[in-house]
TrEMBL record:
Family matches, as Pfam families: 4HBT
Domain Thioesterase: 60-134
Keywords: Hydrolase
Protein name: Thioesterase
SUPFAM superfamilies in UniProt: Thioesterase/thiol ester dehydrase-isomerase
InterPro entries assigned: HotDog_dom_sf (IPR029069), PAAI_dom (IPR003736), Thioestr_dom (IPR006683)
A GO molecular function held by the record: acyl-CoA hydrolase activity
Amino acid sequence: MTRPKAEPKHAGADAHYRALESLYRQAPVNGLFDSSLEIVEEGFARIRFQVDECHYHAAGAAHGTLYFKMMDDAAFYACNSLVTDRFLLTTAFNLNFTRPLKAGEVVAEGRWVSGRRRVFVAEARLIDGTGEEAARGTGTFMRSHIPLTSLAGYQG
């Protein structure tokens, strides 16, 4: 007699993570960037992206909007990995620039810090191609009234 295979312990969580990654890929704004999201584990997200000269400000380094966008997304997805029913919204983000970014691969890491009910806090950082930190920040996120399942890109 063959026993049915047990469902992997984190199959539900993994499905949620993959659905969030799909949501990221399908967001129209992300078509503007060469980037990919990986939710590594609960509360930890990583975005790999390419900085190109088209992202530069007049002085020849990446504009701060790129720093903010990637750090906000990494922190957001780290927090939303803990929430399976609702889309979160950014309510605040504090950003500290530590070095300029030039063309090449950069990694944004977001890590959940606190909160599990209504408000969530996460830290984020950018690591350049040499392994140096280029920025650090903290974001605050809250539950919205938008069900994740109502969003076309979320396939959970």
